[in-house]
Amino acid sequence: MKARCDAVGVAIAFGVLVSEVLADSVSPKPIQFPLTIIHAHLYLPMALAGQSKQHWWLVDTGSPWSLVNIEHAKQLARSTPGIVQQSATVAGKKCAILVNIRTKVGGYPMGLFDFFEASLSGMIAGNRATGGKYGDSFEAGGVLGVNFLARHRARLDFRSQRLSFRDGTEAATAERARFEREGYTYVPVQLTGIGRIEAIGSVGATSYSFLIDSGSPQTILQSTINESVWRFGWKSGSVYFALGQTAQVFAGRLPGFKLGTQDISGKVVQFAAIPNLQTGFTHPLGGIIGEDFLWAYQAVLDIGGGALYLKPQP
Fold first, then answer.
1. Which of 21, 128, 173, 307 meets the CB 3.0–4.6 Å disulfide criterion with 114?
2. 280, 149: one domain
3. Cα separation of 62 and 194, whole Å?
4. 95: Cβ–Cβ under 8 A, 6 or more apart, which residues?
5. How does DSSP classify residue 129?
6. pLDDT per residue over 60-89, tens digit each?
7. Is 1 within the bounds of a domain?
8. How far separated are the first and last CA of the chain, in Å rounded?
9. pTM of the full predicted structure?
10. Are residues 15 and 108 in the same domain?
11. Are residues 148 and 178 both part of a single domain?
């Protein structure tokens, strides 16, 4: 993503935002929405106060903060009375914020929220599987990041391709038991102070932290794991992270690799030198768990309940 405000672009890739963004109360009852795949990513239709139609918003658990298309924010500021814009200085850069604006997801009111403004034009590459070409332009309304998803106790279900906003009344033990009866493996996750979703995994006897990132099309493991225990593999090209940074990618199987208690050692994974990432994790960064993995394991990410459920495809 190329952000107009450099600090916002850094936030998506490296988590340097430190300003607190406030939101109002959570949804009063559980609701769920179908997710739409556009350019190989998951989107929800959402409208902000003053908009006559909905726009597609990327659901991105790898972004600590939620972002609004800067062009849409400018239009709202010009045409809608009461729209408030403020600015925050982050890492020496000034970033605009659309403040305390009403939101509707799929036509359902979700209350007030604050969004950082960013240039999102062309943010997602095309998807060859749907006839698009990489580099195709796509205008998104914004990014629903972890702060919005956590506020509404979101559950992202790759099995049913749906996103639920929960009210917090469900019993975690009963939920876990139900998923385990269906053959799922429970992996605990936690939200760090920086807004990252952390799952603990291991390679042999060494523990690592992994970022759960629904906005990343690929799962990439830290190359230092490759250097220490990887037994074989092959070169598979390069990967683009952000801010013009690319890295060489190698692929292979990683003996002794587990995410929680789920054995991943038989899955082909990719390795690259991941740029410095501010995470707040409890262990060294082992890698980024992306959409390919989440689809392959029919993942259910329960942000509100602190759980990731995994079940390999038959």
1. 21
2. no
3. 11
4. 5, 7, 8, 87, 88, 89, 116, 117
5. G
6. 999 999 999 999 999 999 998 888 899 887
7. no
8. 35
9. 0.86
10. yes
11. no
- Give the pair of three-digit tokens for residue 248: 């060489």
Beta pairing class for 262-263 and 257-259: antiparallel
Residue 235: other Cβ atoms inside 10 A: 9
Q: Could you read off the pLDDT of 191-219 as tens digits, one per residue?
A: 999 999 999 999 989 999 999 999 998 89
- Same domain? For 154 and 193 the reply is no
Q: Which domain holds residue 209?
A: 172-310
Count of Cβ atoms closer than 10 Å to residue 143 Cβ: 26
Query: Token digits for 300?
Result: 């259910």
CATH number, position 43: 2.40.70.10
| Single-letter code of the amino acid located at 17 | L
Cβ proximity of 175 and 198 under 8 Å? no
- Kindly give, in sequence order, each residue whose CB lies less than 8 Å from that of residue 45, ignoring residues fewer than 6 positions away: 36, 54, 55, 56, 57, 105, 106
Q: Residue 117: name the closest of 137, 88, 92 by CA.
A: 88
Return the bridge partners of 113, or none: 101
Q: Give the CA angle between residues 285, 292, 162 to the nearest 5°.
A: 105
* Position 28, amino acid: P
